[in-house]
């Protein structure tokens, strides 16, 4: 929820600025390495006698059911031996080749110059990855003698055969990554699994001798479910359009094993056209689920709850004062609705997402601010917050979480941290931590690999971070959050299944202006579906979006984060055949009528303290 009042945000703003600069440099590097790679290779090829390397057939990437996500096909490379072209025919042959390949005037003139140079070149590469139609026309000309001194050589090309949930994209693009013309995997599984997928290096040969036979790379099987992945991307795209959001992300994981079943962000991109994407939108290569940190907001109240319940500061029914505001020196913390609810049970502080009540509880975690800060920070550490999860993907970042033993928290820092402000983590860290809240207290190791060449991947064992009793309390608290409010319940609950979770709505710091973006927030929901034991953890994030819909309880999104969670959960139930509670008809048995009002504190317009 809203109502932050930071006294020490300069460090976070500075780190955000450094992150922005680093991201800009990475994107520029992507432009040259990927978008201009073919041009750079052509320049090099024209300056030397080119040696051809044996092309290794790259291994496949498949989903948990064996469906192919990435494979290798072959297209022709067109080369020429200009020094063997009969006298006077160089210009004629060059112009015919240029016509077949659709060259423009400048490209045609360059090819003519190459074919008629003095002294003539021994070897030159004209084009990679010809279409089938182009190869047929070249091959026909070579057969009838009209195109002399040419050579077609098959080259492996990476193919991503599945369309994504957004028009013009391929499935799971940011997770899978792509392969450049030199056989190097970039981003995602393609880069992280390069050693396995690329196989042997083969032999190097010159144009006069045949290359060694290709060697096949290994097959990587993922935990991903392709059917659920496509449904997920379609849901995210629908939410992005409905809310006018620049990006929407989500993941689905098994809370006991840490296996990732669906994982994505929209808009994605077309991996088969990575070079074009590198020139126009290289930022689409980035994976915001592990490579981008953000302030998650009130989803962090569950970790403060874990600390308070474990320390015995509160139980579910302990009365907590939720006043209109909380004054801490010169700073003032408000709730989003600018109203207090008075004395309410602790579980309703979470259900109605009250910043003031949460701040008061956080200050009771220890006899001093330093002691309370240490308790909360250590709880974060136990859940893995601010630390890389170790998933088998490159580019994972740790987060921006300050250790109060190194940089002491002031009281306002403790209060803000209690409801998820003034710190930043990745969505994958957040989802993994919620797994431990509902699975008996064990923090799993999130992973995307199922097997390599048929051999199951060894996954690090989970370890217990909270007691099973505390896990059960937190699970019930999440169920209470969903049950407590009428509009919240109808947007989130699913007939025949146990549903629990928590929202977070956080302001966004603008490094350019040095201020908070007006009326723009990150909207997050993390929750589970069960029957009755939790079966899946689902996280959704709607990025940088302004609430534009007026309801009786305040401004909200057209598609809220918890409503998007419900859509994804229904897709997961169908795709993974998750049975409902015994004796229940499941999600087709009807829905609760929509309410006419909302509980205090839900969906309110933000109000920042002075």
Task: Report on this structure.
This protein is an alpha+beta fold and 610 residues long. The protein folds into 2 domains: 376 residues, Beta-lactamase (3-Layer(aba) Sandwich), CATH 3.40.710; 85 residues, Alpha-Beta Plaits (2-Layer Sandwich), CATH 3.30.70.2110. Helix content is 35%, strand content 21%. It is built from 20 helices and 24 strands. The strands form 8 sheets. Strands 2, 3, 4, 5, 9, 17 and 18 form a 7-stranded mixed beta sheet that branches. Strand 23 and strand 24 form a beta hairpin. It is elongated, with a radius of gyration of 28 Å. It starts with 9 loop residues before the first helix and ends in a 34-residue tail after the last helix. The C terminus is likely disordered.
